[in-house]
Amino acid sequence: MRLLALALLLVAVPASAQTDADAAVRAVIADLFDGMRAKDTTAIRATLHPEARLMTAAHRDGTRSVEASPLDAFLGAVAGAPVLLDERIEEGYPVMIDDGLAVAWTPYRFYAGDQFSHCGTNAFVLALGDDGWQIVQIMDTRRAECG
């Protein structure tokens, strides 16, 4: 019975549609980081849903917390950065898509200018709207030591 349900699901969503959606999600994520490198807040905003949230799963001094970053503060920091902000994500990261929901898991290394700053993982949540995919939330981790 489970095999039949899986077969019906695979027939219902053509592989080409899944591949196209995967490519579109990856393009939005790439556009976000290209906008950061260019200090182009208009390009960054175009990737984000108007209600987008930026969150960090923090771990400092043995204490864990979740910290929110206001979107305007993030954009201001990018625009006013005295050096290039370069977040380099690993290629081949997983993307999962179901209808109008996508999740991407992107391990990264962050550089301020030529200097390594930190590393971690981003968990992107995207939604499909009439104008395409938009990032609804980014939650990340940040570490100084990378494996």
List keywords for this structure.
single chain; alpha+beta; seven-stranded mixed β-sheet; 147 residues; Nuclear Transport Factor 2, Chain: A; globular
Please write out the topology.
Layout: H1 2-12, H2 15-38, H3 41-47, E1 48-60, E2 63-69, H4 71-80, E3 85-89, E4 95-98, E5 101-112, E6 115-129, E7 132-140
Parallel strand pairs: 1-7
Antiparallel strand pairs: 1-2, 3-5, 4-5, 5-6, 6-7
Structure overview:
This protein is an alpha+beta fold. It has one domain (2-140): Nuclear Transport Factor 2, Chain: A. The protein has four helices and seven strands; from the N terminus they run H-H-H-E-E-H-E-E-E-E-E. It has helices spanning 2-12, 15-38, 41-47, 71-80, and strands spanning 48-60, 63-69, 85-89, 95-98, 101-112, 115-129, 132-140. Strands 1, 2, 3, 4, 5, 6 and 7 form a seven-stranded mixed β-sheet that branches. Strand 4 (95-98) and strand 5 (101-112) form a beta hairpin. Helix 2 (15-38) runs antiparallel to helix 3 (41-47). The longest helix has 24 residues, at 15-38. It is globular and about 45 Å long. The chain starts with a helix and ends in a 7-residue tail after the last strand. Mean pLDDT is 90; it is low at 1-13.
Short précis:
With 147 residues, this protein is an alpha+beta fold.
Q: Low-confidence segments, ≥5 residues, pLDDT <50?
A: 1-13
Q: Count of helices? A: 4
- Count every beta strand, where a strand is a DSSP E run of 2 or more residues: 7
Give the N-terminus to C-terminus distance in angstroms: 42 Å
Question: How many distinct folded domains?
Answer: 1
Bulk shape: globular
Question: What is the CATH topology?
Answer: Nuclear Transport Factor 2, Chain: A
